[in-house]
Sequence to fold (99 residues):
Amino acid sequence: MTTTTTKPARPDFASSSVPRHLARGALGFGLIIGSIALVPTVGPAALLAAPLSLIAFRGCPTCWMVGLAQTVSRGRLRRACTNGTCTLTRADPAGTAGK
Fold:
């Protein structure tokens, strides 16, 4: 039986902490909403703020959501592949019992 634990080669959109990730989301959504809301008063120039949200989101709102899931699950889940079958398991079930 061969067991391997690997780090996925997919893009990583996670932040170092959940509050930091939520702050990035608030900034990104605020820029999008603000740029659209300010069009009647400032004009089309207000839409120039919308692309800045892509920096806060590290791509798009969907990328931000994927990153939120990665940030929440970081360190709590482990992917293990055995004989061509991969499963997700808790990283340290004994360590979470005392919390």
Q: What stands out?
A: The mean pLDDT is 81.
